[in-house]
Design goal:
Layout (H helix, E strand, L loop, with lengths): L4 E7 L3 H13 L5 E7 L4 H14 L3 E5 L6 H14 L4 E6 L2 E2 L7 H9 L3 E9 L7 E5 L3 E5 L4 E5 L2 E6 L6 E4 H6 L11 H9 L4 E12 L5 H7 L5 H10 L5 E3 L3
Parallel strand pairs: 1-2, 1-4, 2-3, 6-12, 8-13
Antiparallel strand pairs: 4-11, 5-12, 6-11, 7-8, 9-10, 10-12
């Protein structure tokens, strides 16, 4: 059976966590999944591991070794293209910090997306992390401002969906939405505000629901942090240059 949903999983320098969170996906497997893993710190051992897992469990897994430190944006774009090539109509964006905690029923969310052509992304809930559901505006010369003004609730199939403009990087999306709006490879890690701001300028609409929740695991090893901290320097500056702003982000805490 051709998979309907591609789970897009980018990983970098968090191998111990990667094994745990990948296993959580495998433990809660559905027949319509394919798991696409893009690893920016590839090793021969991991390639063998995922090959054995795929063979032994008969689960649909593809493991891709990407150039070292090629970037979160590059990895996601690479995997979305693979999902499109496999004919997957939907992508779940997840990460090596997100554990699946049960078998999720994504059909109501897919049904919601299909109710209107321009519904593109539904953000999903994360336990152990602030709920990241905002509208967004660009304050010229200054920063992106996130707020909860005029968030609207849409009810579908007994589930509440919030119409918004920014969600966390755990969501279910129409693959075509992500093809139309790729992450900016130059920003590498400061990608979040950029992609959602650009989405706002398109036909695609963003929503959020806590109907599905996974667990956020805040584990940042020293080796990983060394690279991640560049987001607040080098790549923050690239975002500022792109939008001609002096700040980066201002959001209202609720």
């Amino acid at each position: 059976m051709k998979p309907k949903i591609a789970i897009i999983y980018s990983t970098f320098l968090r191998d111990e966590l990667m094994y745990q969170t990948v296993q959580s996906i495998l433990d809660n497997w559905q027949e319509n999944y394919i798991l696409l893993i893009g690893d920016q710190n590839p090793t021969p051992l991991k390639s063998v591991y995922f090959g054995i897992i795929a063979d032994k469990t008969n689960q649909n897994i593809q493991y891709w070794q990407l150039p070292f430190d090629s970037g979160l944006s590059y990895s996601r774009n690479f995997l979305v293209q693979k999902a499109k090539g496999l004919g997957c109509k939907y992508c779940i964006l997840t990460a090596d910090s997100i554990k699946f905690t049960k078998k999720y029923n994504f059909e109501p969310i897919i049904n919601f997306l299909e109710e209107e052509d321009n519904r593109g992304i539904v953000g999903l809930g994360l336990d152990n992390r602030q709920c990241w559901v905002y509208n967004m505006e660009l304050i010229p010369g200054h920063f992106f401002k996130l707020n909860k003004d005029n968030l609207k609730v849409v009810n579908s199939q007994g589930i509440q969906f919030i119409s918004c403009e920014v969600v966390a990087n755990f969501f279910l999306a129409k693959t075509q939405c992500l093809i139309d709006n790729p992450w900016d490879n130059n920003l590498k890690m400061a990608e979040h505000e950029d992609i959602f701001w650009r989405l706002k300028q398109t036909k695609w609409k963003v929503y959020y629901t806590d109907y599905i929740k996974a667990l956020y695991v805040n584990n940042k090893p020293t080796k990983y942090l060394k690279f991640r901290q560049r987001m607040y320097g080098e790549f923050k500056q690239k975002l500022q240059q792109k939008y001609k702003i002096t700040g980066w982000l201002k959001y209202e805490k609720y």
